Amino acid sequence: MSWHAVVAALDDGDTFRSRVSVYLHPLAGRPIIWHVVSMLAESQPAPADVCVLHHASAAMQLPDSLPVPVRAQAVTDGSELVALRAAVTSPGLKLLVDGAAPLVARPTVVRMLRAAESSVVALTEGTLESAYLAVSGEGPALASADDPRHPAGAVPVAATFRDELIRVTNRHTLAAASSALHDRIIRAHEANGVSFVLPSTVWVDAEVRIGADTVIYPGAVLEGHTEIGSECVIGPYSRIVNASIGRGVELKGWNYITQTTIRNQAVLEPYVRRGFD
Predict the structure, then answer these.
(1) What's the pTM?
(2) Residue 144 burial (10 A CB sphere; 0-12, 13-18, 19+)
(3) Which residue from 191, 237, 253, 263 has the highest number of Cβ atoms inside 10 Å of its Cβ?
(4) Is residue 129 scored above 60 in pLDDT?
(5) Sequence-separated (6 or more) residues with CB below 8 Å from residue 205
(6) How far is the C-alpha of 134 from the C-alpha of 40, rounded, in Å?
(7) Domain ranges, residue 256
(8) CATH classification at residue 215
C-alpha cells in the first residue's frame, strides 16, 4: 500500500494563553507534534513521506532520523484551506491528521487506510458533527471538500483505544493526554520486563529506555534521553535526567542524576547527586 501523510498544525491555540504554539507544548518530554509525526513515520506500511503544515510564526520541532522523509511547510494566515487542498490534491491515498491529536495509534491508522481504499473515512471524537482527528481517502476526493479536514459524507471509523480521541485544545486536555500517554508508556515498559512498585506515582518520558528486571520505586521521575540498564533498583523519589545508568545499579532513593553516567553495579546512598560538578 502506497500512501502519503499530511499533518495539519494550523490552529491558533488561543485557549492556551501562551506564546508557545499548542503543537510545541511538551508532552512526555517531546512537543505534541513530535508524537504525531513519529507515529505516522513509523507506521507499517510506512508512508512515502510526511508533510507538516504549520503557521509561519510557529516553527516546528520535528523528529530526526526517521525512516521516511519528513518536511515542514509554512502557511501564511488566511491561506490554510488552499494549502490543505494543495497538500492532498494529487492522486493516491492520503491520510490527513490533526496535529493536536497526539494519541492516535498505528493500528487505527492501518484500519483507516484499508477502509479508505473504497471511500473517504474519518476518525472523530464522537458524532460526525465533532471535530475529525484524522481523515483518509483518495487525494482528489479530499481536495474537493470545502475543508479537507471535514469532508462531507465521510464514513466513521472507530478508534482502537478510547484515549486516541483526546484532542489537545487547552491546558486541561493537555493534562488528559499526558495522563493517557503515561499509562501507555508504563504498560510498554512492563511488557518489556520492568517492574513499577506504584506506577501511578512514576513519570517516564517517551524516549526513556529501561532494561529488563529493573524495579522502579514510587515517585521516580525519568526524563529526556535517559537509559537505565537491566537489573537496577531505582529508589523512591529519584530524578534522572538525560543520564546513563549501568547494569545492576542501585539508587537508594531521593537521588538526582543528570547529564552523567553511573557505572555498572554502583550503589548510591540516599540524597547523593551526580552530574552537578
Answers:
(1) 0.92
(2) middle
(3) 253
(4) no
(5) 28, 29, 30, 185, 222, 223, 224, 226
(6) 12
(7) 192-274
(8) 2.160.10.10
